[in-house]
From TrEMBL:
This protein's UniProt keywords: Cytoplasm, Signal
GO BP terms in the entry: actin cytoskeleton organization; cell-cell adhesion
Protein name: TLN2 protein
Residues covered by the Vinculin-binding site-containing domain: 15-116
GO MF annotations, alphabetized: actin filament binding; integrin binding
One matching Pfam family: VBS
Signal peptide: 1-18
Any Gene Ontology CC annotation: focal adhesion
Organism: Zapornia atra (Henderson crake)
Gene3D superfamilies referenced in this protein's UniProt entry, alphabetically: Alpha-catenin/vinculin-like, Talin, central domain
InterPro entries xref list: Alpha-catenin/vinculin-like_sf (IPR036723), Vinculin-bd_dom (IPR015009)
Compartments where located: Cytoplasm
Amino acid sequence: LMPVVFLLPVFFFQMTKSVTNPEELGGLASQMTNDYGHLALQGRMAAATAEPEEIGFQIRTRVQELGHGCIFLVQKAGALQICPTDSYTKRELIECARAVTEKVSLVLSALQAGNKGTQACITAATAVSGIIADLDTTIMFATAGTLNAENNESFADHR
C-alpha cells in the first residue's frame, strides 16, 4: 500500500510541471488513475483489518477523499488539454494537484495511525535483540576470563 501512496505525489508533481506541455497530461492522468485503483483496493483491505475500527473508517474516508481529488485533477487535466493556453485552467490544475498532495499525506497519516501497534512491536523486538546481543557479548568475555570478578567466584558458578 505504501509504495502506491508514495508514487501518487510524483504524478501530481509531473502533472503540474506538464502545464507547459498539456499533451503529456493524458498519459499522466491514465497512470494516476491506475495507481489510485491499486491504492483503493489495498486501502479497502487495510481498512478492513485495521484496529481499532475508527482507524479503518479513517483510512476508508481519506482514500475516498483522495479519489474525489483525483477525479477533479483528471477533469482539470482534460480541460487544459482542450484549451492549453487558458491560464485560469492552469492555475486550477495546480490547485487541484496541491489539494491531492495534501489528501495523500492524510492517507499516509491514517495508515501510520493504524500501524502504531506494529511499529511498537518492531521497536520492542529490536530492543530485545540488542539486549540479547549485549548478554551474548558479556557471556563471551566472561567465559574467556577477561572480566574482573568482584570476589573469587568463577563465571561458571553463576552461569
